[in-house]
Amino acid sequence: METLDKLISRSNDSKSPTWKWVLSIVIALVIVFIEWKLKNQATKIAALEAERAMMKERTVDLSIKLENEKNEARIGVYKDRISDLQLHTAQRALNLIKLKEAFKEKKERVDKAKKWQDLEKLAGGRR
Q1: How far apart are CA 62 and CA 8, in angstroms?
Q2: For residue 78, which of 103, 60, 101 has the smallest C-alpha distance?
Q3: Average pLDDT over residues 106-110
């Protein structure tokens, strides 16, 4: 992201239309690459959310089994599993919050870069 910001500032500082044109093309390529990476990150976030939902379901299932269980040894095992699943679910929630915030920030920066002088009037160097 810093590279993109540097390229945009360098293009803004440049006086040469040819150099602006070249930088605009490089900026467009960097934006495409970053969007591809963000799409992959969005897929990862969706997978983590699905995994977290499954953990919650398993916790509920184990809670139901716990209520119906008569064997004391199994009750202890179920309680341990429920505690572990709740801990992992909470950790996933925190990780998801961090990932979503980072994703949102990166997406906003890319959108801002996309609007940057309409990619220098489509790499024409005109204002």
Answers
A1: 54
A2: 60
A3: 82
